[in-house]
Design a protein that fits this description.
11 helices, rod-shaped, homopentamer, 59% helix
Chain lengths: 322, 322, 322, 322, 322
């Protein structure tokens, strides 16, 4: 589906153009065309491949989807794949993809399986003609920057999730649910890591070493994206590390709870077993057991039982077994 | 065993040829011979060594088998070893090998201990004369690409296996079988890793730095294989990481189950021990125990026992000990 | 908020100057201006950006805060971000930031969310004109050195914290609190690591390889800071390693305690169960039980019970079950 | 002890020579001397140092023994240290050493603390004059290749050992012995690793980068040894990884067994406690307990006890507690 | 405190000289002065700084102490910091420091907080004029070699300590003390690692790449020290790895012991509970219980109890629960 298609010159939008006009504008010097597609079908992609003369391997990657994030040069053009990660209301992660084909005078962005679009990036870019003058490479920067910035709130949600679980753990609550939540959190971190780590690695190509011609003037800006990715990557590693620690702390808490249960079990057993022993003694059938004939033998023994239990209860309470 | 043997020129098949004709075709410029062997014996390999003038160390590697995946240059020719991993119906992994000898005008592929062949690669290549024009290096690409693509369904099967185990773990089912399955899964991942990681490392030689002459034109294509290998490698690492976490989560679940059992044990013990104490009290032989003489002493005490047990049961149920 | 603003020449302070005079002094050769801000608002930063012609990306980083530590070159100037970590009286870590903009003839330091200032650095620098002669790069060195040196007492406090927890662990005390403390300690180490590791990595730019012009003469001094950072980094890793070990040792101690509790439970159960059995035996209603008719049957049996319990107690004590 | 000493020219053995003749043959061009020593004393080594003009640091290393594997150049000559690992019949590893001094026209091999010699290498080399023509470097290759190939059966034995332990673990057998065996296996892997990892690292010097003059023609052969070492190294890492997993799986199995024991304990306790309660009820001394006077009260109650126990047994069996 | 001070020329000692004479000898070509200090105060260090024109940053490092091991060049001179680790009789590690300032014609060694001196190095050096001819760099080598060689016995003591703990673990003895010992051992390994790893890293500067002029001739000797450090480093890593494994094995042993205790508990409980049930049955008050009236009912029932217990004991013994 075509989201929008416009031509730009000298930092300003010339016109919204139809697909048939793309060829005209692409051939003009100093002008570039910015096309945004969403979940395109095969025919649409083939059309674009012809319009912009895209490399077949890159188009095939976009068609198949499920690529790992990467930035590749094909001759003078750059092909970038980014993951889009969106948070479900249920807290699950939804994985989409953003494929960017960038040449000297065109930008083609293909968004797949993602709710939220990048129209705001186009709008902001059009409000900053000074920067948009840099041409298609600025659009590449602006789109990548927006896509990367959207990882932050997702990661913050995962951090908040971990904090919630931590509270449950140290309160000794619902260890079973904690385990499941920690395991799910670790899986989400894997998803985030798969989005960010390869992109970080690839990003170096756009600001260090031999930078593609088309991106050269904006090296400092691409370095800034790299910087955000490093921070995201480091945060993922830290959360991951704390999740592993939390799993082992949770096991310790479970063992502690078990230990406490065992003490309670022992304590209550004692409170019952001792009076049972006494009752057993006075249930013996000896002919000569003077207590049995006492007038107040029975209440005395009952009091003895209660007294011993009170004392035991006090001692066990003090020793924190109860 | 000879699977097939044909000569190609300018992207098109010239003819299926006999082994005796190999020498003729190999000496023609612009022509290359593609021979496919399956589980060959020593004599057949020696024959091929002579026909194509292969390096003795490479031939010896192919003869012995059980090599680690690698890509080596011997003069102008390239020798590549890939693992073939096939899934048994039982879920076990079967390890085969694909050895590729590639020179300017020949390709020799040797498949060992693998069910499924690569005839489909030959068929598809012959339908794409544009690409097959690149000569023997394209055949190298096509065979490696096919071999690498076959790792994906195997890895997906392992991912599905892990998901199955996860469900069992969190349902608290069959912890013993889960352990065995996780351990076996880890071993399979080791097998996959041994197939993929060394190949990924070796692959760099075909698209970065000093690329062998024979592969130079297809660098972008070999980079594409590298990309698939990176993705496979990353997925293996993630599954492996989750398997380790799952083992520790499984231990936590076992401990939790044990803890729950202990609470049930304690609860049921209490339900029996308290009435036993009461019965013990009224089994004492004191001469003066007024209750014993009451008309309804016995049913009152039985009701007392039942009442206490109902109350305990209610409390223990509420505290989730039962 | 402006903390101070002064101009220096040839290692000596010329004058405290007003913000309006900055432009005059910055344009003089051999003279540099040192401005210190604290928690500045947007307007103040914009003013400074104009006064010193700072790069917009750097100013934006300073405005947003929460950057990872880094050292970046923008043309001839250097932009450095450091974390400031301060210890709460409660033992919590408070995270602030120090942003340094350094050009040939100016230093702008921006401190955010940190209690303690760097006036002492200015005072000491003014007492060492020999070194201050090196110009703005020496101020950069002096401020970074001071900021890095302040990590040491924080790390020592964390080391002391770990030692306190270790004592509790091996004394078998408060395992629950130990767990929580170890977990919190690990989180603090993550905070420290995030402050130190990226800075260490960035620091290399100031003493190895292509050093920015402005810092060239002080390479040995920046190497010294690197050295301190390596030491801090190594110490963090060691503490982190010991924390993980301590968590697993703590689990072992909990399991040991549980094991000991189980032995005590068993021991006390035995002390009650055996006399209960004996009482049960003499509660049987056989017509022919000679002991029942003995004159001293009852006291003999009571003594027997006591005797057996004494013996059991002695044996269990010796076996360390009690 | 001198094992053998011979001179070679043009791939053929000239003669077995005495130690006094070494000097004559070493000075002839195109000829090289191959001396094999076993557990030599200090005097013998000094003699050889003089005969071949060896570097004092290398000789001292050979004298002291217990070096880590390495390959060092001293001027034109190469000094290599390899570990020899032999399997005791008891399964223990015996560590020996092979020191190789190689110059343009001599090879001195010193074997220490190892049972099996390298006479077979000499015999095979003499049967391959084509290769032996390469001179002393081929002998270096042949000896290193033989030494490295001997690691494979040792490692296979360790793999078999792990498999044996795995079977015990999953059968729930002898967890104590499994632990000891896994721990010992891990120690053996450390020994193997110390033999192989440093050698692998050093090996690069003989086939990549600046290769010593004496080894230049055989680069492809030394690369082959490297390849074997990479495979060995990878296998060690995998076994090590599985040993760690096996230890944690073993712990899970122990906890599972404990859990099962606890359930059995609870089940059997229930089978005894319930009839005991019933017996207690009918041991009460109420005057009005109609059942007591029934003719068949006693057998009815006994049957009740048995019936309840049968039912409990059936339920517990079904719930897999028994 | 001045330990000794002497001048050397051409590999021979010229004279023990006073501190005031240092200046004379340092200015002579072909002559070098070797000064050894122990725990010097500030004044003494300042004196030396003037005598040898040392770099202020290096002197400050020596004054402060607690540096991480390093080797730094200041112009033509080399500054090296090594840790000295000595074993307390109690098994604790004592950390000292050795600071070496080496220029073309002087060596200043500063030993801090270490018992054992390096006089033996001076004595041996004076007995080897051939090597001492290399000048101050040979003294640097000899001192570093001696300092590094002293790490070996310390590490062997730690290895012996681990072996002692292992024996305790597998004998099931004193798990609590084992934990404490393993934890302490891990801390000692951290101390060793901090001494060795940074030195190993720094050592490369003295034999690979751009070696300082003063050390150039002795590259092979410095490589030998590197080699020792690699071995030490590898051994530390292996011990550390085994300590972690030992902690987890110890936990498994504790859980095993607990499991065994639980079985014993269950077994003894059974031995008491079953006779108690029987006694309870014959304590019931039914009017019609034929056994009660039998002449030998009582002894028969006692025998029955004993018989059942013997049988149970035999079965439990066989099942290894007792």
């Amino acid at each position: 589906m075509l989201v929008s298609c416009a031509a730009y010159q000298n930092g300003k939008k010339l016109a919204d153009i139809g697909e048939s006009e793309i060829h005209d504008y692409v051939s003009r010097p100093d002008c570039f065309v910015w096309v945004a597609l969403r979940d395109p079908d095969r025919a649409k992609l083939d059309e674009m491949q012809q319009a912009f003369d895209l490399h077949p391997l890159a188009v095939e990657d976009a068609r198949h989807g499920h690529q790992r994030p990467k930035i590749e040069e094909y001759g003078d053009s750059v092909f970038a794949v980014l993951h889009i990660i969106e948070l479900d209301p249920s807290g699950a992660l939804k994985l989409g993809e953003l494929d960017l084909f960038v040449g000297r005078n065109y930008v083609l962005s293909v968004r797949t399986a993602a709710e939220r679009g990048f129209q705001d990036v186009r709008a902001r870019s059009e409000r900053e003609p000074e920067l948009l003058k840099h041409g298609s490479s600025f659009v590449l920067y602006a789109l990548m920057d927006a896509a990367v910035d959207r990882y932050f709130p997702v990661l913050q949600a995962l951090e908040a999730e971990l904090e919630g679980i931590e509270e449950h753990i140290f309160a000794g609550l619902s260890p079973r649910r904690n385990l499941r939540a920690l395991y799910a959190l670790k899986q989400k971190l894997v998803t985030m890591k798969h989005a960010i780590a390869p992109l970080l690695e690839a990003m170096g190509k756009l600001h260090g070493g031999r930078v593609p011609q088309v991106c050269y003037n904006l090296r400092d800006y691409f370095r800034d994206i790299s910087d955000h990715l490093v921070r995201l990557n480091q945060t993922i590693d830290s959360i991951r590390d704390m999740v592993i620690t939390a799993i082992s702390v949770n096991l310790s808490m479970i063992t502690l709870e078990e230990s406490k249960t065992m003490k309670q079990l022992a304590a209550y057993a004692a409170l019952v077993a001792v009076p049972t022993l006494i009752a057993g003694v006075y249930g013996m059938n000896f002919q000569h057991m003077p207590e049995l004939e006492w007038m107040f033998g029975y209440p005395v023994v009952l009091s003895l039982m209660a007294g011993i239990d009170f004392y035991l209860y006090y001692r066990l309470k003090k020793a924190k077994w109860l």
